[in-house]
Amino acid sequence: MRLILLLFLNILRKVYSFNIDISSPTYKVGPPNSHFGFSVAEHFNGNNPILLIGAPKANSTQPGTISAGAIYSCPLNSYFRFKSNINNKWCSQAYVEYQNKERYKLPPRTKDDRSITIDSKGSDYQLLGASLSSSGKVNGRAIACAPLKRYHEGVSYTDGSCYLLGTDLTLTSIIHNCNGGRLSKQERHNSYGACMQGFSSSIDEEVILTGTIGAKAWTGGVHATFVDRSDDVFAINIDRTTLGFEERENGIRENKLFEKGDYVGYSVKHGRFGFWYEDKKNFTIVSGSTRHNQSGSVVFFPFMSIQDQSYEEMLPTNDGFMLKGRQIGSGFGYSIEVLDLNNDGFDDLIVGAPFEFHIDEKGNEYHGAVYVFFSNGKFQSRDQNDLVFRKPIILRGKEKYSQYGISITKLGNLDRDEYGYEDFAVGAPFDDNGAGVIYVYFGSKDKKSFNIKPAQIIQASKLGISPKQNPLKSCGFSLSGGSDIDNNGYPDLLVGCVLSDTVVALRSKPIINIITDHFMINSSLNIDGGVNCPRGSKTCFEFTTILSMNPSYSKEKLVDYTKDVFICQLETLPYQLGIDKRAKIYGSKDGYSLTWECGKNLNSQSQRKVHKLFISKDNTDWLNPLKLKFSVYIKDQPKTTLPDEGEPLINLNNYPILNKYNSTHEVVISFNKRCGDDDKCESDLELSATFLDISQDKKGTFVTRVGEKDSINIKFVVKNKGERAYESRMYLQYNHDELDVPQLDSTKKLSSVNLESYENNVTVFSLGNPIEPGKVITFHVIFKLVKSEGQRTSNILNFKANVNSTSIEKNDKDNVWEEELEIIKEAELELSGVSSPQMNYFGTTIDSLSDAELKYEEDVGPMVKHQYTVTNRGPFYVRDLSVEFDWPFRIDHEDDENNYALYLLEMPTIIEADKSIRHCLVEDSYDYINPQKLIIDPSLTVENSVKQKGRSKREVEQGKMFNIPDIKITTKGFLGSKGIQPIEATDSNGSPIMIVDVDCKNSYVMCFKVKCHFNYIESESSAQIEFRARLWNRTFIDHYTNVEYVQISSSGRIIVKPEQGVVDDQSNNFFTISTHAYPDRPKLQTQELPIFPIILAIFVGLMILGLIILICWKCGFFKRKRAGDGPLLHKAELQYEREMWHEMH
């Protein structure tokens, strides 16, 4: 377990870091809010390394100043706090502005050592330390600048000033080109009244550069000094400048390449890149112009060292060549660095564009960019300046507002590779939530081999900073590297964290340069082969790991080679994502990883270890190669720790690491696939198929009639006309919403064919591994029809199959079979119905009730139910079926708006075969369903009647109470009042009668539509749709008491979408239910009789009546009780309903 944990930790360390140590940094915390770390430089005072730090807002302690800025010289130790500066153990202030440090005790207005007058406030807020540079060499020199230095009494000309410092940081000279009489200040900032010299600076053993971005209304410029040491006796300073003198007052603006606000001089460096004029004495000045053309550019100024006054001015190249930014506001040229990435003798150029924004084709956002320009590695002709550099490699920052590329520094040969490639670091000060991140990149042989992935990512939030300190902010705003400040042979890195007033020195660990390799007898593996293979394996082979030291570093003894100091590990890896590992290591616990101790005497001899690997018989992938990885880690590697303040720094030589790239070795091993001399399997699969027992119509389309239990059988034939076809498969696509997952016909199944997987509408069949040349495979696939869940738009089934393998297919045109099958789905749908009761009566007993007095549902009239039945007699199910109804709601009369016909009491209800209930759809149902808000009798609802599992006895009796007479309607019209007119008909006896037909076809009948939807109706099943209503008495009493009866009809129709492909006889898809309503009254006499017969009849009747009474009295008849006169039919009906209501409540 300890070993596994050790390996895991080492792997993590390997992924996220390299040889810059982040666990024990050396850091300095400056005065608060001083911008301590705005600029940094690695410097040597003689042989002693120091950290040179600029703090442009610091109090310099000079009288008459508040925030003049300061330069600090800090030793490399563990004293980090500004308050612990006893005997300058933390840092000391470098008094760079005067040769005599005592002058700092006097106000700035006093003339300096060179009798230069300084404005009384000229040193305050001068930003001393805004730029800072050192040669980074032993006994080297440095330069510190104050770009807002003001010299002129009473005039705020921000001339700027730079101070050239010796190795001990004493002042040797002052550079202030704009503070002379040769440059006009007549137009103030529009001429040379705001040069801001020292906004940028650079220095090495030969060249001093300063940027003057404010010259000529911030057109900008560069001043350069070359120290010519070719004379053995004297060193000659040669000055060149872009500033205009006398006859060329405009300087670089003379050639109209630049204009106001371009900021030439924002960054400055020099190098020899391959321009035609370059040699030992002539070189090229490089300057960033961040606002040129709004997108920024990098301009090149030839520095010609001929000692001639006419060459004092420095202008761009003969053709005005420059590198241009690609995006407005990107800040291209904000930072630049010159180094030799590939050690070809020609300098390469790196340019930062910290504000560039980019979105790739996947929608990923990138913030900040760095352009890497490799030199072409040769001198170009005078007219080929554009060929000096290759097209750039673009590195991009990932976090928003990170300002990736705001700082760049060369690191020297950080990993000390044997090729001498120089490396570099990029700062992103606002990455990682503002803490800052530094990205380290390695040089390479050429542009093609350059690795755009950082070799190391240093997150400030992960640095081993004392918990007493506040969290770091904006680390990477300034960077300085390339110098070995701890004398262990490896260059180190200095990082400024300006918003936390902190500077961090990150030292580099030494590297053990080992070499990992392997040996195999054969370059490829036989699928059927191997000697003494383990049981259950298909093949096996031997693999030898080789561990050795790089001869160039074999004398370095960073570890004790008298014992095993390393852990070696052999792993099998997936060849690609989604491919299994397959090869197993004999002796490994998990089969795929084996570790052992190694490294003893490695500095004098290499180590070899033989391993046996095998592949199981269950493996099917013989085409993709195997992948092995041999890795080495340091055994029991200790981790560096942060020393307490005042304690000695740890010696990083005791904490070496392995070379990141040479400590791992990956191998790809191919199989001998027996496919010719080139070992490339070129198969030629052919696929054909046909439907069994299905015929074609005249158009050649396959057509079949199907029922729910039918199936479709397809015969497939696959033939290999080429070389071996490994991992052959057939992919079958079909309509998964109509067909079940296909199955192989078990009666004709081949052992080599198997159903491998299925998902949605694709089923995969494995056909064999491999299919040998010339082999023919025949198999049958059976589909069963299922209930469709999708929204299909056709009765056509589509089938598409294609075969392939992991071999190379020579001809893929015959690998695909595609066919359509038209299926005819027969289903006999029928709509039927009945009115319950079929006959009803409307009477006059509630005629006195007004509409406002109608409260209960029984107040309006007798109940009527229209019960429809939808039946599917098969043989196929029907999906997505609708039944639409027209319901007679109201009769149009001028005298009354509430002339309801059949007053619907509740939503029409669907009763499925399993007695489940749901409702139909009625638009604006509040207007049509019980609009008068009558109190509903819950015992009479459809839902309650379904729960009682059948109709009540009374409902049955009502349905059988009356026989509807046989009525024949003639075509004679009848003249009546405006509205529905009665029509003439004949009864079963042939006698003429008058009836009223309330039907939705009549324009005086107002109807609304009801839609009932069914997802499925199974074969041989039915469902019921029930409408419960009341006959509205008042409508019929007011208008239709003088007719024989009123016929009230609703109608329905079945609707099936044609695209469902269902064949149905639609003759019985329509049905109408009619309810006959008779007036509840005696027949009225319509013919007048003579008065005398009437009087005579009355007299005779009274005599007979008196005689009968006398006889009955004599017989004692009046001693018995007699029942009262019976009610009219309607009275009886109404009384019965009320009695039933009271019994239930």
From TrEMBL:
Keywords: Cell adhesion, Glycoprotein, Integrin, Membrane, Receptor, Repeat, Signal, Transmembrane, Transmembrane helix. Residues 675-822 form the Integrin alpha second immunoglobulin-like domain. Its main location: membrane. GO terms for molecular function: integrin binding. SMART domains: Int_alpha. SUPFAM superfamilies: Integrin alpha N-terminal domain (SSF69318), Integrin domains (SSF69179). GO terms for cellular component: external side of plasma membrane; integrin complex. One of its GO terms (biological process) is integrin-mediated signaling pathway. It is found in: Membrane. It is a single-pass type I membrane protein. Coiled coil: none annotated. Residues 829-1078 form the Integrin alpha third immunoglobulin-like domain. The chain crosses the membrane at residues 1091-1113. Belongs to the integrin alpha chain family. This is Integrin alpha ina-1 (inferred by orthology to a C. elegans protein). It comes from Strongyloides venezuelensis (Threadworm).
